[in-house]
Amino acid sequence: MATTLPKVDVVIVGMGWVGGILAAELTKAGHTVVGLERGKSRGTQDYYHVHDELRYAARYELMQDLSKETVTFRNTEKIRALPMRSYGSFLLGDGLGGAGVHWNGQYYRFLPYDFEIYSKTVERYGKSKIPEGMAIRDWGITYDQLEPYFVKYEQMSGISGDKQLPDNIGKMSVPYATPPMKKTPGMKLFEESATKLGYHPYVIPSANLTQDYTNPDGIERAACQYCGYCERFGCEYGAKADPVVTVMPVAQKSGKFELRTHANVTGIIHDGKKASGVKYVNTPTGEEFIQTADVVILSGYVFTNVRLLLLSKLGKPYDPKTDTGSVGRNYAYQVNGASTAAFYEDREFNLAMGAGALGSSFDDFNGDNFDHSSLNFIHGANIRFTQTGLRPIQYQALPADTPKWGKGFKQATIHNANRVLAVSGQGASMPYRHHYLDLDPEYKDALGLPLIRMTFDFEDQDKELVKFIAQKTKDIADGMGATKTEMHNVIRQYNIVPYQSTHNTGGTIMGSDPKTSVVNNYLQMWDAENVFICGASNFAHNSGYNPTATVGALSYRTAEGVIKYLQKGGSLV
To answer: What is the DSSP letter of 471?
Structure first.
């Protein structure tokens, strides 16, 4: 029998970026908060002298244990879903800080077009531009409404970037907190080539500090060392903004926050209209607890947020056959595959050095920044060159005609180790009626609860987008002075391997219609006014950008909404 614990103002499920921001903001406002994290605690000291590619990049030490909980996957409803047994397509973070610890730090605000994608697409091209089955919709919020919250995230985390960005991305009311990162020779070649073609490159905004920085909460952090160990790693310098070194200390120093690790939440307790708390298992002991609270916040990863709602029977599950219900709707991924490798014979680069967000990019073919009238897709991609730090175990950039084994393979691997620069496109992913998340009827986790099931495949929209963007990457690479270039312009059926992107979105989408969305623009649940759900699960589609900036901005707006709710109650919109 579960032990019921004393009520607090707020209980937060998941202590990554969202949970950390909310804990910091709510405790600063004087509210008592309990944060539940199913993984272990961690701090910067855990990453001292652990530049270990095998341990972290290849064996996924910071990731969720798939033998205890995973995701099942199928391309269509006609196929039996099977569990992801080992990591491939995406990586699920685990422990304090979540995916906010092992991210690269690439920081992009979603475009103004993204938040009003349906209206703006129809306005420019007509309804016929949207193919049958595509489920794009406006988000119920505009870029201008969200802009002040982007600023809050940027000042808290110390985002570095150019003071003046191109006009084809959203306007900024306040410059980034710190100057942009250094330009490598590869970045300069990319920018020179793009500029000659009439495009508008800029240094990628970065959560890797370029100088020592003290944020508005008084948190001090040191500058990036360009060591090349960002993605899949924690930062030993604290230079990469993550929840553990930015917002968690603020909550912990308030005296109003309690963190409980190894707390695996299994359900939300509710009466159909309001929640009274959550039930969780202390995994080391197997004990069950009920944490009562005035407000329940789900701030986990996409799959976690959706799964908890479905397990708790809170909200109406999405039914693709009737296109009714909202929980699980509008799952989207991201479209990669458009790229060109530039091979050099007479020039070498120091590619082992870098940082997760070190690079340059442009958006001339992102969003609706270009005319789609004659194209068989909407939206686009951010085109970029990045120098994240290439390590020996997982990096072998080889020409297509390289032998697959033996002496020739070894010679080509050594020869090309520092002679290949890659230009790539990160493309937007549009939702479709038949792409969704639900509970798997067959497979269960270590606690006996159904796993989340993903139904997804690449559509003609994605394939056409990749063909178009790949040609643009080749145009850039051809102008970078390489001996030869090789273009990749084809994607086929989606598979759970190999690694592609951890940018999953959707399932608890925001909007203005309770019939087709789960939350309003404060991320307050339509079906339970004291439940707030925040994260990339709120995205109604996925952009050509990394999602963290928009998740961060939504987190600050959600904190504002929770404070208003605790004061007055009722619906916030």
So the answer is: H
How much of the chain exceeds pLDDT 70, in percent? 100
Residue 75: half-sphere exposure toward Cβ, Cα within 13 Å: 9
Please give the Cα distance from 222 to 163 (Å, whole number).
21
| Maximum distance among all Cα pairs of the chain, rounded to whole angstroms | 72
pLDDT at 506 over 90: yes
Name the CA radius of gyration of the chain, rounded.
23
Q: Using one digit for the tens of pLDDT, what is the confidence trace for 176-189?
A: 999 999 999 999 99
Confidence of residue 1 (pLDDT cuts 50, 70, 90): confident
Bridge partners, 288 (sequence order) = 281
**Domains of the chain by residue range:** 3-568
- How distant is the alpha carbon of residue 24 from its chain centre? 21
Is pTM beyond 0.90 here?
yes
Over residues 406-446, the pLDDT tens digits come to 999 999 999 999 999 999 999 999 999 999 999 999 999 99
Examine the residue annotation and report whether 503 is marked as an active-site residue of this protein.
Answer: yes
| Token pair for 59 | 């064996």
Q: Which of 102, 270, 379, 503 is catalytic?
A: 503
User: Distance (Å, rounded) from C-alpha 438 to C-alpha 310?
Assistant: 7
- Beta carbons within 10 angstroms of residue 121's beta carbon: 20
User: Could you count the other beta carbons within 10 Å of the beta carbon of residue 39?
Assistant: 23
Which are the contacts of 506, defined by CB distance < 8 A and separation ≥ 6? 302, 329, 330, 331, 332, 431, 437, 536, 537, 539, 540, 541, 542
Q: How far is CA 498 from the centre of its chain?
A: 18
> What is the distance between the terminal CA atoms of the chain, rounded to a whole angstrom?
39
Residue partners of 111: CB distance under 8 A and separation at least 6: 143, 169, 170, 363, 366, 367, 369, 543, 545
Residue 405 has pLDDT above 90, yes or no: yes
Q: How far apart are CA 311 and CA 318, in angstroms?
A: 14
- List, in sequence order, the alpha helices (H) in 417-547: 460-478
How many of the other CB atoms lie within 10 Å of CB of 47? Answer: 20
Mean pLDDT in residue range 447-467: 98
| 247, 215 contact by CB (below 8 A) | no
Using omega within 30 degrees of 0 as the cis cutoff, is the peptide bond preceding 498 cis? yes
What does the block give as tokens for 568? Answer: 């007055």
Q: Which residues pair with residue 531 across a beta bridge?
A: 296
CATH number of 3-568: 3.50.50.60
User: Does residue 48 register a pLDDT over 90?
Assistant: no
Q: 364: which 2 tokens?
A: 């001339």
94-147 pLDDT, tens digit each: 999 999 999 999 999 999 999 999 999 999 999 999 999 999 999 999 999 999
